[in-house]
Specification:
By secondary structure, the protein is mostly helical. The chain is 37% helix and 7% strand. The protein has a two-stranded parallel sheet.
Length: 90
Amino acid sequence: MATYVCQSSVRVPSDTLRSQLGGVGLDVYPNEPDVNPRLLKFDNVTLLPHLGTATRDSRKKMELRALGNLREFLVRGSGRDLVVEMRTKL
């Protein structure tokens, strides 16, 4: 049985991870791209890069959104998805 668990809301002791869980798969981390080094010590933990958007449909939507942002920036001098820190610099 698979269960979704938010890593940042759960602190799993080492002995629990080793003995009570069959396996753990993670692809989102609280401080990406940094991964808690303790997780690298377990044989039953699989760490993956964040692949939730790795479908053709979602990549196409991201491509169109990025091009739309570029167009807005070139035409109006701002884009709707600017990084907060960049908004103050422009």
